[in-house]
Amino acid sequence: MLSGRRQTEEAAERLLREAGALLEGHFQLASGRHSGVYVEKFRLLERPPQTDALCGMIADWARELSPQVVAGPTTGGIIISYEVARHLGLRSIFAENAEGGGRSFQRGFTIAPGERVLVVDDVLTTGGSVRDVLEAVRAMGGETIAVAVLIDRSGGKSDGPTARLGSVGTDFGVPSFSCLALDLPSYEADGCPLCEQGLPLTIT
């Protein structure tokens, strides 16, 4: 089982590198912290073969859970939701920003009471977008049965009651999965060793 997980992560990392989405250098993240590695998800999403392969990994993992619909947040999550749903032969819907905060299903999207929902996203950092979708599913009476992401860069190790092999570093209260988990070191700008080395800074 462990070897299978390693193979999944190795394949996912290879696909990200093929797409030019896993970058190494000196980056200023949206948080203001600095890092030597950066994941540019849109470099991946512009490459259908690599995106399709990663979404296939999610679909293979989720199939045994018998989801009935796949949901993701805007923006990148729309593509992930569509591709995973295509692999599973299911509907794909997405939740977008709502007035007053959070996200909601708009444009006529519906979830039947008790319908089993697989929530997906591209890159997990803080988990805020996923939580918004979970709330939107609850608001429509659906049942979230799992959460899956392409890349987990939250840096945590899930050890809650729903943790499983390959689960993400944030416990959402349901089984979870990531194609690749990256525990990336980051630094405060005034104590960054990359700055001390004089490496050029790229603002992401």
Describe the structure.
The chain is of the alpha/beta class. It has one domain: 3-Layer(aba) Sandwich (Rossmann fold). It contains 6 helices and 10 strands; from the N terminus they run H-E-E-H-H-E-H-E-E-E-H-E-E-E-H-E. The chain has a 6-stranded mixed sheet. The chain has a 4-stranded mixed sheet with strand order 9-2-1-10. Strand 1 and strand 2 form a beta hairpin. Helix 1 packs antiparallel against helix 3 and helix 3 packs across helix 4. It is globular, with a radius of gyration of 17 Å. About 4% of the residues have low confidence.
List the main descriptive attributes of the protein structure presented here.
204 residues; alpha/beta; Rossmann fold; 6-stranded mixed sheet; 4-stranded mixed sheet
Rg for CA atoms: 17 Å
List the domain count as a whole number: 1
**Strands, total number:** 10
Low-confidence stretches: 157-165
Name the strands of the widest sheet in spatial order: 5-4-3-6-7-8
